[in-house]
Amino acid sequence: MEAHEPLLDSPRQSTEHHRHAEQIEHMEPLAVGDQRLQRRIGWVTGAAVNISYMIGSGIFVGPSFTMKLVGSGLMNVFIWFLGGVLSMAGAWTFAELGTMLPRSGGEVGYLEYIYRKPKYLLAFLFTMWSLSNRASGVSSQGTVFGSYMNYAFFGSEYKSDWMERGWSVACATILTLVNILSSKASLRVMTCLTVVKLTILGLVLFVGVLSAMGFLPGDADMGSALSFQGTATSIAPYASAIYYNT
């Protein structure tokens, strides 16, 4: 049976169809020769990878930092709610782009599709920026991981920048080797770490709710903690707070 072109209702649809085809041809190929990777990531693993990518060490250190910036507990809650709304807008945007262009590459593929001239320039610049930005993110999160490991093994009084860096290098090296040696093992590690992160966040939320309801001993005044008392009056702290929680 011969293949037929899709029926187009109007000249405008025909023009858009040809334009879309030209933009797809402009993009880099998905693979060269027999180098195409098989799609073996299911819904659970895919969700775990995205959740683990989004939830890093920032969620464990960010709230106290944004609290210092905005000055009050209730404003801090509002800032985090606003950050969640902005993050959802970004997620919906990427969902639309992903369904429109179901190709590997993420932002690089989208930039190749949208900005055709000069060819690959913006995609290349974004790739270089992404490599440097993510490398710095790994190093900063590794340092946070090192501080937590020092606290767990040596107590709250122990402080050592070099030990934190050592933990960071060890963690980054182990995870890099896992990703190099086996893609299946890296996905399993990612899934396990996602479960650990969600469990810890759930425990933090559970303890916070119990403390607010008075079931746990503490000297915190919930009335003053969840108020606008001491809220910052300048704009700059809010810009920084939104940046850190998105």
UniProtKB/TrEMBL annotation:
Residue ranges, annotated region (Disordered): 1-25
Single GO MF annotation: L-amino acid transmembrane transporter activity
Residue ranges that the Swiss-Prot or TrEMBL entry lists as coiled coil: none
Keywords annotated in UniProt: Membrane, Transmembrane, Transmembrane helix
Bilayer topology: Multi-pass membrane protein
Superkingdom to which the source organism belongs: Eukaryota
Feature: compositional bias, Basic and acidic residues: 14-25
Subcellular localization(s) per the UniProt record: Membrane
Pfam assignment, any one: AA_permease_2
Transmembrane parts of this sequence: 41-65, 77-99, 120-145, 165-182, 194-216
One GO cellular component, as annotated: membrane
Keyword Hydrolase part of the UniProt annotation: no
Primary localization class, coarse: membrane
Official protein name in the record: Amino acid transporter
Species of provenance: Lichtheimia corymbifera JMRC:FSU:9682
